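Troubleshooting log. The previous structure file for this entry was overwritten by mistake, so regenerating from the original sequence record. Sequence copied from the archived sheet and checked twice against the printout by T.R.
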Amino acid sequence: MSSSTPPVAENRPTRSFFAGPGEQGRWLLWRAAGEALLAGALVLLVHEGVSTIDGRLEGGASALGLIGIALVLVRRRFPVACVAGLAALMGVVPAVALLTAVAAYTAARQTRTPRRRIGVLLGAAALTMLTCAAFTPELEMGSRLFGLALGAVFAVTTVVLPGLAGTAGGQQDRLLRALRERAAAAEEARRLADSESRMRERSRIAAEMHDLVGHRLSLVSLHAGGLEMALLKEAPELRDEAAVVRRATRDAMQELREALGVLGPLGSDTGTGALTDATGTRADIEALVEESRSGGVPVAFSWEGPDLDARPAQVRRAVHRVVRESLTNVHRYAAEAHVTVAVRHTDQRVAVRVRNGVPPTRPAAVTGLGSGRGLTGLRERVTLLGGSLEAGRTSGGGFAVAAEIPATPGPGAETADAAPDDSGSASVDESRSRLSVLQRRVAGAVIGLLGLAGVGVMMLFAVLLVDHSRYELAYQSPEKPRLGMTRGQVERAVAPDDDASRAAAAGREPPRPASATDCMYPYAGGKRKGGRMELVRYCFRSDTLIAIDRFTVPIVTEPPHESRMHD
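Regenerated output below.
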């Protein structure tokens, strides 16, 4: 009982963490390894450009950078979670900014719903600004206002702009996919319409032949039978002639039904004997051969492989008709020639060969090898099954018919368009398709790298502008420093204490208040006037601001390089 049907889940392929929708294969691991190396290079590159911002993390920046690399590798499987995680991480480690751009592009490209796409991008942008504003003071890079401005720069350049590009790319992919599906549906509809029109025309021709010819032949057969019965008493010597007429009429009716089977739908074949279970089997072909031998034609027969009783009926009918039509032509045009009938059955195909030599005597009426209409019908039948048939003279002057029939025709093979010469063009189209796919991938990789370079340049310029105005922007406060404020309030309102400003004021500053316990020299911000630099000094008694002094000091410049070469 335990050996019943196994669970379906065991046969389902496990989707890799590095795979996108519909992707499978071991090549995904190689792609992930290459992306990991590229992501590491991008992190190092951006770290060098913004080292003044995230340099305070020291060893922590490396660990967070590795987390960012891991997130960008699984962005195709978890696009929303990855872009959210990288956006939050970017507020602490700006070195992962380009990785965030890649994740935002992928998430926007894979998200189909516009509302969900907008929510993901705006949420990631807001998360970047919030985390940057929250951690900037903690990392002593500036106030929350400075962090908010820096986060806005990162959000626009690495989330919003790549998200818009991914949205455009996803819409283009969906549009191209819809156009391809529409073209395929139109082609399939055209093929079905052509096939239906062809089958309708064949049915019309079959109906006309049945109405016009079949009725006349039936009358001829009826009158021939009556004549045979009348001559039995009146002129027995003519009875055989009447019997010949009746048999010829019967044979004509049989051939007419077979022709109607070719012209009409193949599934409703009307040929006599063509719908039995033995049609096309080894016993059936041997019976055809034996019938020809009894008619005085020397036939050699060979069969290789298993019998055809397990093959589809249309395959067996095709084999039967190839042999029968070939032997009929031999009876008509080469009655005394030696004939070879060979059938070879493999797992994939059924090969039929009927070959006759040169007859020792010419036929009484020189008719050549016939009009070829019977062979044309055979060729069409075999081609509709996906096979091929060739017929023609041999080098020795005889005639040969060779048919290759698929042992198991595909679905719809009987109604498919006949295209025996399309194999070469199909292979060419396949190679062109592979080449175009490779070209698109290479072009996509190049465009992606150029896009990342553009995002990096925009981000670095924006960061430099924000960083240049760090002290003006980061420490602007609606509350100006005033006497009586605490040291913490002053530090939040002005730039931090600067060692260079303290060194410049040494020996040139006004006397400190007697009760001052400590003084603070904020960064001067490069304010120069008449060769002097303006400084501000905030003096505290314990934790209370007691004096604000503004003074200027001369700007000290280094002497030229040549003047220091005295030693």
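The radius of gyration is 46 Å. Archived copy saved in two places this time.
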